[in-house]
Amino acid sequence: MKYKFILWLLLGFITDSFAQTITIKEAESGEPIELVTLNSPDSKIYASTNARGQADITAFKELEQIEIRSLGYKTLVKSYAELQAAGFTILLEISNLNLDEVVISGSRWRQSSDEVPSKIISISPREVALQNPQTAADLLSISGKVFVQKSQQGGGSPMIRGFATSRLLYSVDGVRMNTAIFRSGNLQNVINLDPFAVEGTEVLFGPGSVIYGSDAIGGVMSFQTLTPRLSLTDSPLITGKANVRYSSANNEKTGHFDLNLGFKKWAFVTSITSWDYDHLRQGSHGPEDYIKDYYVQRQDSTDVVITQDDKLLQIPSAYSQINMMQKIRFQPNEGWDFQYGFHFSETSPYGRYDRHNRVRNGTARYAEWNYGPQIWMMNNLSINHRASNTVFDQMNLRLAHQWFEESRIDRSFSKPDRSSQEEEVGAYSANLDFIKAIGKKNTLFYGIEYVLNDVNSEGSLTDISTEISEPGPARYPKSTWQSMAVYVTDEFKVTDDFTLSAGARYNYVSLDSEFDTTFYPFPFTEANLKNGALTGSIGGVYRPDETWVISANFGSAFRAPNVDDVGKVFDSEPGSVVVPNPDLKPEYAYNADLGIAKVFNDVVKVDITSYYTKLKDALVRRDFKLNGQDSIMYQGELSQVQAIQNAAVAQVYGLQAGVEVKLPKGFGFSTDVNFQKGEEELDNGETSPSRHASPFFGVSRLNYKANKLRMELNVNYQGKYDFDDLPEGEKDKTEIYALDENGNPYAPAWYTLNFKALYKLTNTFDVSGGIENLTDQRYRPYSSGISGAGRNFILSLTAHF
Questions:
Q1: pLDDT tens string 496-532
Q2: Which of 55, 73, 95 delimits the end of a domain?
Q3: DSSP secondary structure string, 568-616?
Q4: Where in the numbering of this chain does the TonB-dependent receptor plug domain appear (predicted)?
Q5: DSSP letter string over 128-196?
Q6: Which residues of 105-138 are buried (b: 16+ CB within 10 A; e: fewer)?
Q7: How many domains does the chain have?
Q8: Which helix (H) or strand (E) is 622 found in, with range?
Q9: Given 70, 95, 120, which residue is the final one in a domain?
């Protein structure tokens, strides 16, 4: 045994001694390119370049096909011998017309998009650097394919293919972010992520339940944060960046710093970002209905309505946030890779602006309506092992613990009683994923998953005149939510041109809740739900030549009732109160989509995807009875009782289309447009437009690149929703919509004209910025409770080292 250990050490030393490094640079500028993926389609070996454009390709020796890909560059396929003949230095040419790229969200493993029938888009760090998104929600919106709703500045709720909130899944470094209190109302959790610390963002459109389980009905948003990079030489690899940014519309002051320290076997990444936003100023030209020119202030123990000096300021909307991340990586040899990540995010308290727009008895409805600090923490351990045995080629174990805190504080105008509700969720998850190539035609992806959520919720009532507090009603019951699952997907290469994929997942979900009947006389004290769900998918990708991609996919997805569905108590709208309903079952979605992409003469790319989704046993809010009563007193108002119920069938269909044109002299043009229509069944058998099916929206871009300069002029736009187009549940929300000539709410069409630029001053410093909303439009995205920024000047300085 001793001699085997010595031999293992010698082999490891020899392997390190003869490690081969490749350097990849941009052909035009000669600058190194980070995050280039080198992939072997047959052996499933991959590597990616560090900040110096370098990667260790020792494992690729003797291979005949090595695919070299990076978003925005032409893909190359080389043999190891060809790389050796080129001196292990490769130059990539810029191209925005790629039909293939390496994606992770389809299976949690790196794959060519040629092998994934689902539509997946990537948002590159280069695009993020140019666009300067303020939050992760804004990062998603720059794709032109994700619609983002906001109820306050400190938020952002993505809508994808007519679905949103708890019907979309968030994944961070492969870990499920969704918790048992993800609600059907608008969600703000995406802002916990730091766009400066994200090195890759993907959006998978359509069902993803086979891989991700419950909630992945409309799509999956996958975020990969900075990966610690190892040194490929005896010298430490020290890289990083520092950034400062200012925006005028909300007086943004942002600072960011990240550092990578890499050795041959150990690497560390540290990242910290701080944001500070003042109240957001909206535009000068647009509907007067969006203007609220007052705010409430407490003066001498009295609530006073203050008239604003600047009526375009949206008060209260200011907030601040801090994010920290620490990652550690240990790679003892080529077979093992250990990574640990710690993430922490905390916001200040911030006002929910749409609630401050509500009026009662001719004056402000609320003196206070704030979210308390929103806190997210994650500890994540990932263990990756490469081995060629009968069970797997690669294995990945992810163990994660997450902690979520959020709270709501409200007080009616001229009333002394302040209501506070605080929720805490401890989320534990374990994922064991495998990949196994069987011959040259079949690849199996399979695994098991376990998720546990502990939910605690407390309420209190405080008399602000005496500062005496007492227990109050909680938003949720004390609950435990568990999910156990097993899945398998087979990727079968029928021919060199056609790949077929099919998969299935069985999921068992249980929910146990204990209700407190102190404040509400519920006719039950507990809820115990146990449900099994079977989902599947089948699809194919056909590439008749290098300029065509045709894909089709059929799949099902599900969402199991969570604590928010079963147990919450809250006021959904004036005059209504939602109460618990312990008799719920999962909702199921059935989806079909067809995609076609074509490149013409390496100049024009056209990409069109159509889709149809049907949702059965949809969990929707409907009128309800509590103890035989259809109305109860809630916060001093007689309110209609409602509850979440399996009460509807819904359907969504639509079209996503994009065109890219490569113009002479460094210019380019692109357009992405999205059309969707959703319908859901009402109690009376009639149908209503779906709440989360957004109007027509898109973005058109004219860009220019030359040497060290990149510029873009773009137009973002949204179509109109008349009063008759609004969902039934939106027609009473006069506080967030414009009013038509009949006094009915509607969502006007809007556009913003924006200019962005980035210039590389030196190898160390970049300066970027631009002007958003050049024409100072006053606009409000559909279903949003706060207007977008008016004319906004942005200036950012970044130092790379």
A1: 999 999 999 999 999 999 988 888 878 888 889 999 9
A2: 95
A3: --EEEETTEEE--------EEEEEEEEEEEEEETTTEEEEEEEEEEEEE
A4: 114-220
A5: HHHH--SSHHHHHHTTSS-EEE-SSSS--EEEETTEEGGGEEEEETTEE---TT--SS---GGGGS-GG
A6: bbbbbbbbbbbbbbbbbbbbbbbbbbbbbbbbbb
A7: 2
A8: strand 604-623
A9: 95
Q: What's the token pair of residue 655?
A: 């079209």
- Six-digit token string for 169: 């899944």
Q: List the structure tokens of 151.
A: 């109820």
pLDDT tens, residue by residue, 422-481: 999 999 999 999 999 998 899 999 999 999 999 999 999 999 999 999 999 999 999 999
How many Å from the N-terminal Cα to the C-terminal Cα in the chain? 46
Give residue 542's domain range. 224-800
Residue 320 to residue 692: CA distance in whole angstroms: 28
- Residue 462's CB is within 10 A of a number of other CB atoms, namely 18
What is the spatial distance between Cα 132 and Cα 504, in angstroms, rounded to a whole number? 39
Query: CATH number, domain at 244?
Result: 2.40.170.20
Q: Cβ–Cβ contacts within 10 Å for residue 347, how many?
A: 23
The answer to whether residue 108 sits within a structural domain is: no
* Token duo for residue 109: 């493993």
Is residue 368 domain-resident? yes
DSSP 285: B
User: How do residues 350-392 score in pLDDT, each as one tens digit?
Assistant: 999 999 999 998 999 999 999 999 999 999 999 999 998 999 9
d(CA 407, CA 426): 15
**CA distances from residue 293 to 288, 313, 358, 788 in whole angstroms, order as listed:** 11, 8, 13, 16
Residue 42 belongs to domain with CATH number = 2.60.40.1120
Measured CA to CA, the distance from residue 738 to residue 290 in angstroms comes to: 7
Strand partners, 588: 558, 616
